């Protein structure tokens, strides 16, 4: 183990001269390699959420619109990667950020190399940057579900770039940058209920609102997934990816990170139990594979802000309660009269709100201190005001993301060539036939689609 922890030197923002005769930029991490190897492994695991969401969304859609969701899964990732390298990382994590937004100090990945990262001095900044990139494009991929079966692809990719810049980066700065106002409030958001789930869920709701209802929603009985097998496979990948999502958010290889991984599994498992229980009662003794998968995802969403703050039994309870709340909102789209067909708002928006609120109740400094330094008490430790802080977090992020997304989409809607929605004829035929060359549209019968 290195005798001293690395320190950021503003005179050496690159972390040293890798070409110098005397500098060895790796020497400062001597004995600490297991921390950044662990984090880079977590980043690779998180990447599996990308095909997971693609398969989940593709399975939930009609067969003739599923290819467009698979396509967007990778294209959104590509667009957000470019945005992150261009200015996204700097707007979220610049060291000289204001309480609300970062500067362009790291524009074009400038100075992002071997120096200790702003998130943890135990890892190089380039590793931190890559890990946080995974969060950014998973968030935008979740959000794109709001365009379900009627959104044009090119405007959605333009929206992805702009949304990451105007919504995600500021919210990430508020929450995780050491200068952010929610970070210093402090709110407790271990792995992203606010920036990832509440922001994407509320913005997906805005997307569905601006697009309007599907023309064939009533006539053709939309709502049933065409391929339950794909839904199941997608959920498996998402569940696995979430071990890296939550397990790495401590930004070190401490016991706290391992405990967060355990909590992740506990919450997902109990989320499945909670949703299946509600389905069983609602349908008078029947089960649903899709419902079980939705319960897993609800549990994962609920535990995201809490994984590194709560002990295992509260983690299980958070997963269970989040799933029960989300499953009980079966008719939410009818109540609010918005056709949000993939239930992004219900699962991620509402699920993130429930998880964030319960984090304020169950946060336990004995768990956060497992990394050796973090004390984050909640009402569980007698700090009841933490619940109010969580409510401030929820209110600010949900309102900002919804309103700004609506404004951004309305601006795009009236730009020539950027109309957001496909024609009624294209919607009837399916997005795959309308927006892809014929030879790419294959036969999915192998998967026994309905």
Automatic annotation (TrEMBL):
Family, similarity comment: Belongs to the ammonia transporter channel (TC 1.A.11.2) family.
One cellular component (GO) term of this entry: plasma membrane
Compartments reported by the entry: Cell membrane; Membrane
Main location group: membrane
Regions that span the bilayer: 36-57, 69-89, 121-144, 156-178, 190-209, 229-245, 257-277, 289-307, 313-330, 342-363, 394-412
Entry GO MF terms: ammonium channel activity
Topology of this chain in the membrane: Multi-pass membrane protein
Domain Ammonium transporter AmtB-like positions: 38-436
Protein name, per record: Ammonium transporter
Organism in which the protein naturally occurs: Extremus antarcticus
Any Pfam family the entry gives: Ammonium_transp
Source superkingdom: Eukaryota
Keywords: Ammonia transport, Membrane, Transmembrane, Transmembrane helix, Transport
């Amino acid at each position: 183990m290195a005798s001293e922890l690395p320190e950021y030197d503003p005179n050496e923002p690159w972390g040293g001269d890798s070409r110098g005769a005397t500098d060895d930029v790796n020497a400062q991490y001597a004995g600490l390699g297991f921390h950044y190897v662990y984090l880079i492994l977590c980043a690779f695991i998180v990447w599996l959420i990308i095909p997971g969401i693609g398969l989940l969304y593709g399975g939930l859609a009609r067969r003739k619109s599923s290819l467009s969701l698979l396509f967007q899964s990778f294209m959104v990732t590509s667009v957000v990667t470019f945005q992150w390298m261009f200015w996204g990382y700097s707007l979220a994590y610049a060291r000289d950020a204001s309480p609300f937004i970062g500067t362009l100090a790291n524009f074009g990945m400038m100075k992002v190399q071997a120096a200790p990262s702003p998130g943890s001095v135990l890892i190089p900044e380039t590793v931190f940057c890559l890990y946080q990139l995974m969060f950014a494009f998973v968030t935008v991929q979740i959000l794109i579900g709001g365009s379900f079966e009627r959104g044009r692809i090119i405007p959605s990719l333009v929206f992805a770039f702009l949304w990451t810049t105007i919504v995600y980066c500021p919210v990430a700065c508020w929450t995780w940058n050491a200068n952010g106002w929610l970070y210093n409030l402090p709110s407790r958001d271990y792995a992203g209920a606010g920036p990832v789930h509440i922001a994407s869920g509320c913005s997906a709701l805005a997307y569905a609102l601006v697009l309007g209802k599907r023309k064939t929603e009533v006539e053709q009985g939309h709502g049933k997934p065409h391929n339950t097998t794909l839904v199941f496979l997608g959920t498996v990948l998402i569940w696995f990816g979430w071990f890296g999502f939550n397990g790495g958010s401590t930004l070190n290889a401490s016991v706290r990170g391992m405990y967060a991984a355990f909590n992740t599994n506990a919450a997902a498992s109990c989320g499945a139990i909670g949703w299946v229980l509600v389905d069983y009662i609602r349908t008078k003794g029947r089960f649903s594979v899709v419902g079980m998968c939705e319960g897993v995802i609800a549990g994962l969403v609920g535990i995201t802000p809490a994984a590194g703050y709560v002990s295992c039994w509260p983690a299980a309870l958070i997963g269970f309660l989040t799933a029960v709340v989300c499953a009980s909102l079966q008719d939410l789209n009818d109540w609010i009269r918005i056709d949000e067909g993939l239930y992004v708002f219900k699962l991620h928006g509402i699920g993130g709100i429930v998880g964030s609120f319960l984090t304020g109740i169950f946060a336990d400094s004995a768990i956060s201190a497992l990394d050796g330094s973090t004390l984050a008490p909640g009402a569980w430790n007698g700090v009841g005001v933490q619940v109010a802080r969580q409510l401030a977090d929820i209110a600010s992020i949900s309102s900002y993301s919804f309103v700004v997304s609506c404004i951004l989409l309305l601006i795009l809607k009236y730009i020539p060539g950027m109309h957001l929605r496909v024609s009624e004829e294209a919607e009837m035929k399916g997005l795959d036939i309308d927006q892809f060359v014929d030879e790419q549209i294959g036969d999915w019968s192998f998967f026994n689609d309905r």
